[in-house]
Design brief:
By secondary structure, this protein is an alpha/beta fold. 50% of the residues lie in helices and 9% in strands. It folds into three domains: 304 residues, Substrate Binding Domain Of Dnak, Chain:A, Domain 2; 128 residues, Rossmann fold, CATH 3.40.50; 179 residues, Rossmann fold (3-Layer(aba) Sandwich), CATH 3.40.50. The N and C termini lie far apart (55 Å).
């Protein structure tokens, strides 16, 4: 039987000892169902590909996930990002480049995160101090961050996170017992104990017993499973933002870490608690709001209050260069310190563009400009950049041979065969820049510039001008168009929408999706009647808090709710940071969000109906139709 063969392949003897009877029973049930599907397909012939595509698109998240794809096709099942295959799931190779092996070992790591969270909750109840919780806090953030889309493809690195996590979990167990604390409710996840001797292959095998398909079957309720996934991906994004704050020395034990562990602990349960899982997802949004406020404060305290700054977007010639991509400003600051007076110029890329708005970063004169666009263009842009590249966080894609020998990763980022920097020692990068590259052949003139830095600290002092412009009919509407970028052709929706907005409207943008707008000749120099720029770049996705603050404060000034503002949101989503921000908007009660280019594959029809009825969530559609509705406040 195919099911028996799969069970044998998934569960080596060493793993079987650590896998509960419940997990094995769930897996057996799933594989028997798959046997029937495969038997039916072998008798009737394979379903034509064209039918499969239509069928799967129609049924994405509308039926039990284990019935959607035959097990012979499902070497993996990952749908955490918007670009997931056919809007259903990546089942043979991730669109991001993730292999089935990487997907499986990441599922193992996710189970360890949940196990650590269960014991972290118990430890705090037993009286653990903030100092006691530091190892668990730091590990949780780094481990969860490593599972985000386009962060870590290195099975060796992920296996190390798993081993570290089991040490953290065992220490928490000891702490709880030493304090005579109450033990957590018995469960497979709470009792998880993966021996340090397990190799990556064995950890992958275990991961195949705790992935989406298996958890869905164990839960036995599609809507509950959907909410569990929504909460999981949001918690991953929240963990990533908290990790960014931690890198700057900021951590909030009471308002962020304690509730974050409670969120992960809730996600460990297979109880089909729809109401509880919905509340848990919205709690992700609440905690993420606090996290993004802390991150905003951390950036400002560490690097100075952002100010509008013109950034050179064209090359400076005849000097050695280093390119920095990702999101981590601390990495960039360390690199700038180490490259000072070395004759090396530093460029930002992608989501590092907003670095130029911080006084302490732009004070380095050899931070000369920005190169390239968003993450999905890196295979071309990195290949043509004359110098080494440092990727500090998401998003990285499998490097081409042309630049594989001059790309470096830091923090949670990992690709096997790519040099990884530990402790922010960039000496190898600097040495390579000085010895192996000649830089750009010439300085491009006339130079082209883009203005960054419209942080809430800059925009709110303009509130009176904005309100006056609205009242006098000089400002017809405010649009927030931003989020994650990606490679699909239909993401041009955001460019088309921005260019179609009325000339008397204001556009706020942030995240890497801003690259769909900031290169538009129509918008680059556009201004409102009062002289304000029509397009305001608020920063990274990490700076989403600025947009929230501006909306809330404008509503206060006008004596209305955020939903009554002349404000329309068109959000481009891709990965789990966007999921966290989306849940924050729901927590704040924001309505009329247009989300695209596709709705998440993990949202079932019933959950979508709830979001539509309670928040009027809408998919992006035809630009002119959507714009007409937006101008009408719908």
């Amino acid at each position: 039987m195919i099911g028996q063969a799969i069970t044998k392949r998934f569960l080596s003897r060493s793993i079987q000892r650590t896998v509960s009877l419940q997990h094995t029973k769930c897996l057996s049930t799933i594989t028997m169902k798959f046997d029937k599907i495969n038997e039916r397909n072998s008798n009737n012939g394979l379903i034509k590909r064209t039918f499969q595509k239509t069928y799967y698109r129609r049924l994405a998240s509308t039926i039990s996930v284990e019935a959607a794809i035959p097990v012979s096709k499902a070497e993996m099942f990952c749908r955490q990002c918007e670009q997931t295959k056919d809007g259903v799931a990546c089942t043979t190779l991730g669109i991001c480049g993730k292999t089935p092996e990487t997907a499986a070992i990441q599922d193992t790591l996710l189970e360890v995160i949940k196990s650590v969270a269960i014991w972290a909750v118990a430890a705090r109840k037993a009286g653990a101090t903030a100092e006691d919780m530091m190892p668990a806090n730091e590990w949780t953030l780094r481990a969860a961050f490593s599972t985000l889309t386009n962060v870590n493809f290195s099975e060796t690195r992920i296996a190390e996170y798993i081993r570290q996590g089991m040490v953290v979990k065992r220490d928490l167990v000891t702490l709880v017992k030493n304090k005579n604390g109450a033990l957590p409710e018995s469960s497979d996840t709470a009792s998880l104990d993966l021996p340090d001797s397990l190799n990556p292959l064995q950890l992958e095998e275990f991961g195949r017993t705790v992935g989406i398909l298996e958890n869905s079957k164990c839960m036995g309720h599609d809507d509950a499973n959907s909410l569990n996934e929504i909460g999981t991906y949001g918690a991953k994004g929240l963990s990533a933002y908290a990790c960014h704050a931690m890198e700057m020395g900021y951590m909030d034990e009471s308002n962020i870490m304690a509730p974050l562990h409670e969120i992960w602990a809730k996600l460990a349960s297979h109880e089909p608690d729809v109401d509880g899982l919905l509340a848990n997802a919205l709690r992700v949004g609440q905690v993420n709001a606090a996290t993004m406020a802390l991150l905003d404060r951390g950036h400002c305290d560490r690097f100075g209050a952002p100010t509008p700054t013109q950034v050179r977007m064209t090359a400076v010639g005849n000097k050695a260069n280093i390119l920095v991509s990702g999101h981590d400003m601390v990495d960039l600051y360390s690199l700038l310190e180490q490259t000072q007076d070395t004759g090396v110029n530093v460029y930002t890329h992608g989501e590092m563009l907003p670095a130029h708005m911080y006084p302490k970063l732009k004070a380095f004169k050899h931070l000369v400009g920005n190169y390239g666009t968003a993450w999905q263009a890196q295979k071309f842009e990195f290949a043509t950049f004359p110098g080494p590249i440092v990727v500090t966080t998401n998003c990285i894609v499998e490097p081409r041979k042309k630049y594989r020998g001059r790309i470096y990763t830091t923090n949670e980022v990992g690709v096997d065969g790519v040099q990884h920097i530990v402790g922010r020692d960039f000496s190898k990068v600097i040495q390579q820049a000085q010895q192996e590259t000649l830089g750009f052949p010439r300085t491009v003139e006339p130079a082209r510039f883009h203005t960054v830095g419209f942080n809430h600290r800059v925009v709110l002092p303009l509130a009176n001008q904005m309100i006056e412009a609205v009242q006098q009919g000089h400002l017809s509407r405010i649009f927030l168009i931003g989020g994650c970028d990606g490679s699909e052709w239909d993401r041009s929706y955001y460019t088309d929408l921005a260019e179609a907005t009325p000339e008397d409207s204001l556009i706020l943008t942030l995240g890497c999706a801003k690259n769909r707008l900031i290169h538009s000749p129509k918008l680059a120099e556009a201004k409102l009647a009062n002289g304000m720029p029509r397009l305001m770049d608020m920063g990274q996705c990490n700076d989403s808090y600025s947009a929230v603050v501006v909306a809330i404060e404008l509503a206060k000034a006008l004596g209305c709710t955020v939903n009554d503002l002349p404000l329309s949101l068109a959000i481009s989503h891709l990965e789990q940071k966007a999921a966290a921000v989306f849940l924050t908007l729901l927590h704040l009660g924001v309505r009329n969000i247009r989300l695209g280019p596709r709705l998440p594959a993990y949202v079932t029809p019933n959950i979508l109906k709830y979001l539509q009825e309670n928040y009027n969530l809408m998919p992006t559609g035809d630009v002119q139709t959507d714009l007409k509705l937006m101008m009408a406040g719908k």
